[in-house]
């Protein structure tokens, strides 16, 4: 994304009252515990490492829908 990364976007989304309850997951190639923590701290609800199988993504969405 030009001008912004996913972490910055997540922070902006969480700061917007209309979207404060929106479920979001970071999908990234970085899979270390510190990467997951960075995603959660930025405002993502979860962290998925690429490549992710469809059942993993489906389970994430089904289990976390609000």
From TrEMBL:
| Ranges where the Response regulatory domain occurs | 1-65
Family matches, as Pfam families: Response_reg
The organism encoding this protein is: Aporhodopirellula rubra
Q: Which GO terms describe its biological process?
A: phosphorelay signal transduction system
> Entry's SUPFAM superfamilies?
CheY-like
The name this protein carries in UniProt is: CheY-like chemotaxis protein
Q: Which PROSITE patterns match?
A: RESPONSE_REGULATORY
